[in-house]
């Protein structure tokens, strides 16, 4: 059971995450979009969306620090366990609260603005449930276990377990005996990762940083041979099947 | 010098009757799908008026186009690239559907299915977005013909600039129609504000397009375009815009809006310009210098040096000849009667307008004067301050000089041609007073008044856009050869794009497949070939079919080569 939960499930989820993205990128460029609903409603979105997104970026940054950086490294830098804990809990709580507030506004908007509600697909709904649960359980871990419950040193168990998945030395036994809230959080996040490539969340991976350096105006030639032969050839006759190309 | 070719349009506003045919045919062709119900790639607005979307010209609010920063460098009005990226999660300058209008339909079914009753059943308006009851309070041309009176029309952002105390009294009022499409700018701010680089300007013909595969829905382009001619498809989550009907112009026929224009007031042609000079011209310090600066970017296609450079840049003979015969070049450069729309947005727009003389003529005639007398007209152009200043706000960043000059040329043309029509002796001094010869005035008259289809639209085909591909494409249709029946423009399109679903040329087993132009993204039925036992590849490679050879002549070339067609095509 331990092996299935903490080794098989994570690998299945991560495989789906990676392969799913590759597959979708190759076959569904047209569907790869934020599908923003700002056109329908702008006021609430301008409040909630930056809070949510910037908060979440901080949260993800915190996760990277907490999971990818082993405790021994920070100690070697002379950062005491107490100091680390203080920083991570306070920064984590702050960014978590901003994220939750942003998400609350966005969800309120989803439900109450008719046009936005109408634009919500089943896919979106499943994604929202997973995302909300992931964030809620995450908050519970940060605030509940660490602040109120006296602190839990996930860097001794959860972090090495997660790193082990990537170094191909999985140690599922590390997760035995971790608090239930941590276990639930991990499983929900894994489910979210598994579904990620099939939802709107793919837009994370097209963060357009190249915009900062490219020329303002893009020029492109019309190439009658190139367009979408691979994508559409199965479904439609394309211009490439003009006699010249067939020869 | 880097010569590039641009397909441009000129509209003669004097002839626009505001019938909206262009808008309707464009919508039928391109935006009658889910997600773009509110979108009009072509719209016709009454000026003065608020326009579509409401007050789009108020760039202090919408932040479209370019501006000069403190160091005099060209930068997007909506802010630096970094600022745009930081605003990516919520664009503060994005119009919402309410700024365009909430699209609606009527519950017609209620009229048919209502049981017998004492009261007449009604068809309630339903929102096309939510499907719920809606109150119709605004539309794409709500203030058509000054509808709504001063309370609506008075909100025109240009009126406020013309005079502190504009009165829209009936006896002093003026109006005209302004049809608008995407300007296919030389310096497109929509493309410049697209974080993904999905909007591009085509090197061969200058058409500005959104790559639907690369757009990620960041919606910065909607803000970036000062003409608000990029729209967000709320169903697919992608930006869409006027395509200058590229599938049509590529085979040498005009855009849908031009083809169907009732007033026959649209002209399409090629302009050659110096791509290296665009940035400098767009950065001149004073707004009013932008119109002359843009004229300076255009190249004279009759100049042998320009022709030589164009050839070196790979522009084909067909395109150079088209540029020399371009009606657009004549109206913009030779006669200088066409002016750009809002040059102060610094995007270097490429749909230009012949300003309307009719508001002036109308006022003259209504006051009992002869509206076709040169002296009266010239005097009136100078005296009627508000229409002329208003036109200047539209076309020359407020500089009345070029507007007055263009109107005087039109007035001179009227006066000159009337003398000819009435058999009176012509007065060359009328023509000379506006810097033209009588022969030029008559040529201009022919172009503006009676030009035929192939004089209004001088569109080289895309096959000739790049000479080195000519070989490959010249064999486009075997029936086009000597002795063959020849191809019409429609055949050319059908052959190139295989729009075979609707013209009966699709093979029977594919008759039900979807026509992409109408696809609303809701269902995928018909998009993919049905599974067949002998393998999907085989099914997809089936030629368009022996079964059509009988009823459609152009199937013949395909049917004649079944062996070839069965080979893999990629
Ligand atoms: S008018 Fe057309 S080309 Fe110019 S900025 Fe707007 S969308 Fe782009
Ligand atoms: S079809 Fe022509 S005349 Fe009619 S509104 Fe459009 S531009 Fe004007």
Task: Give an overview in words.
Chain B: This is Nitrate reductase subunit beta. Chain B: One of its GO terms (molecular function) is metal ion binding. Chain B: Its cofactor is [3Fe-4S] cluster; [4Fe-4S] cluster. The complex is a heterodimer of chains A (247) and B (570). Helix content of chain A is 63%, strand content 1%. With 247 residues, chain A is mainly α. Chain A has a single domain (2-207), classed as Fumarate Reductase Cytochrome B subunit. The termini of chain A are far apart. Chain B has a domain at 475-508 and 521-566. In chain B, the strands form six sheets. Chain B has a five-stranded mixed beta sheet with strand order 13-12-1-15-14, with helices on both faces. Chain B has a two-stranded antiparallel sheet with strand order 2-7. Chain B is globular and about 70 Å long. Chain B contains 28 helices and 15 strands. Chain B is of the alpha+beta class and 570 residues long. Chains A and B meet through α2, α5, β1 and α10 of A and α3, β8, α25 and α26 of B. The complex binds iron/sulfur cluster (2 copies). One iron/sulfur cluster (SF4) binds next to α1 and β7 of chain B.
Kindly list the characteristics that best describe this protein:
heterodimer, A: 247 residues, mainly alpha, Fumarate Reductase Cytochrome B subunit, 10 helices, globular, disordered C terminus, B: 570 residues, alpha+beta, five-stranded mixed sheet, two-stranded antiparallel sheet, 28 helices, 35% helix, 11% strand, binds iron/sulfur cluster, nitrate reductase activity (chain A), Nitrate reductase-like protein NarX (chain A), heme binding (chain A), Heme-iron_electron_transfer (chain A)
